[in-house]
Design goal:
The complex is a heterodimer of chains A (about 325) and B (about 350). Chain A has about 325 residues and is an alpha/beta fold. In chain A, about 35% of the residues lie in helices and about 25% in strands. Helix content of chain B is about 30%, strand content about 25%. Chain B starts with a helix and ends with a helix. The chains are: A alpha/beta (about 325), B alpha/beta (about 350).
Chain lengths: ~325, ~350
Amino acid sequence: MSFLEVKNLEVSFNLRGKSLKALQNISFDLERGERLGIVGESGAGKSVAAFAILNLISRPGKITAGEVLLDGQDLSKLSPQEMRKIRGNKVSMIFQDPMMTLNPVFTIGTQMIECLKAHRKISKSNAVKIAIQKLKLVQIPSPEMRMNQYPHELSGGMKQRIIIAIALLMDPALIIADEPTTALDVTIQAEIMALLLDLCESNNVALILITHDLGVVSQVTQKTIVMYAGRIIEQGPTNEIINDAQHPYTQGLINALPQQTLPGEKLNQIRGSMPSLQDIPSGCSFNPRCDFVLDICTKQRPEFTQSGGCSVACHMVKAMKDAEKGHSAYE
Amino acid sequence: MSNNQQSVVTDKNNGVEESILQVRNLHKRFDISRGFLDSLQLKGGKISRKREYVHAINGVNLEVYKGEALCVVGESGCGKSTVARTIMGLLKPSEGEISFKGQRIDNLSNSQMLPFRRKMQMIFQNPYASLNPRKTITETLEEPVKFHNPRFSAAQVKDKVAEVMLSVGVDPNWGVRFPHEFSGGQRQRISIARALTVEPEFIVADEPISALDVSIQAQVLNLMMDTQQERNLTYLFITHDLAVVEHFGTRVAVMYLGTVCELAATKTLFSTPKHPYTQALMSAIPRLDAKNTAHIKLTGEVPTPINLPSGCVFHGRCPHANERCKIQIPALIVQNDGSQVACHAIEENRL
């Protein structure tokens, strides 16, 4: 059994009596110390997936099917009290915007000690000691002084480091990072990603990294999931997906990066935009934007096809695989 | 300094470049002194008033040539947006001159500035904040046309707006909708359309694609490149994303703490980055070919622009800094390949 198993997870949002499915049929697993990237455009359901794992979906949203097994325990069935013991403890989350995550009216120290005290019986002096040790771990200069500072006194990169330190306080086994560097500059982004990677490797922490930057995913993760309109459309080892993407959407995402085209030439774009949940196209939800549409694409939802180490939900890939098989059968 | 500025070499072959915008020795300080009583200080038996400033821009020289896309890159807080806003006349410079096509514009009154506002337009970073949520798209787009062309008939205004909407790929029939009904990429198209309605020659784009997804970024960048060709536009493009710069820019100015530390043609900058800060920036771009762990790590953070470091503003984080760097401010010096670099180490051939 894997450390984290997500099985057929489905999340719906109620909108004026209608039920919109924001996530459907999400299944993947993760071992201890393994790093997984979830990519896709905004609206693909990446963040909803992260929130659903931590059972953080609030009304009008609801987990309507499936299970999230962490060490065999189904998180989606836990009561809020039980769930509170797991969040920040066994699993912690790093959010996108460091300016919004820290409480502006409390010092860094107060916020770190609060987290420690919520999860275990600990004296204040011990809590301070642990907090300072974690701040050192994320390479914050003069941590003793930072403990008494307020969030506004720190730069964006510094704040994100402190959030990582808070995430590490209880030595979690899994960290979920939702676009941790999107609000930061390139140089700071490189530093934070290197730090996160290093911490996960040295402490055998599993990481789920949510981002729309394929460059970041390729440098940090071992496995990748590509999402589109609430569904997984391709998943597999990161290097296979980056070097040999099968699904036209994944190919489109990779080709859209400026480094994939010669300077000055027109960038490759995916035409159109992500459909709204209220009118998801029938068949394959990507078909209106796809360059390789077959008749079947508008009628029937594609099943997963195995291709190398990846599984891909695409009729065209399946047709090609079938053709290969048929070919070898004749030989 | 100005001699260097004159001798800029560009990689275009068409000989003499026509300058459209000139920025000379631009300084911008923001007063952050407290109230009058708070700022009083007793010093050596005398009461004096202490003033504090944020030194956002410290002596920037730039020249933008017709038809090019000059990119300004740097980390947040380096003053790139302040440069953009000062050029547009949204902020008054503390020192220095800005001229548009040879005419000084930084000291004009609002009414004198009007004819220039037509020729210079701006696209902002966040399309969610830069469009008025209470106005329909048509209302938003018609306003600048009516304002700058008071003689236009209603039909002419309508035609103009429809034409611009078509050219940015937004269906004119959607004009009755409100901004919240559009996605981020579409909203940014509408922002671009708004800038284009008055037929400007020069557009300042302040991080126009930072708030968008990768695939939508490509759409908007392609649109900007197309309009540049169709309308013979000149861009000043502000961004922190070097991968985009490599694609889009004719020349690049790298800024650090309110000063330009390297200015070069895009190709030159990317093949041979010279300034240590530029090199660090380049190495931080996340690339798909995973094995580029040779990332140059800068120690420390960008210093505060309230108390500027003495000498070279970068010396605190520079691995090659020596005593001279702590004392003397380096000037932009033209290199053999035409790029300009402000670094003592390069001048002394230490790098």
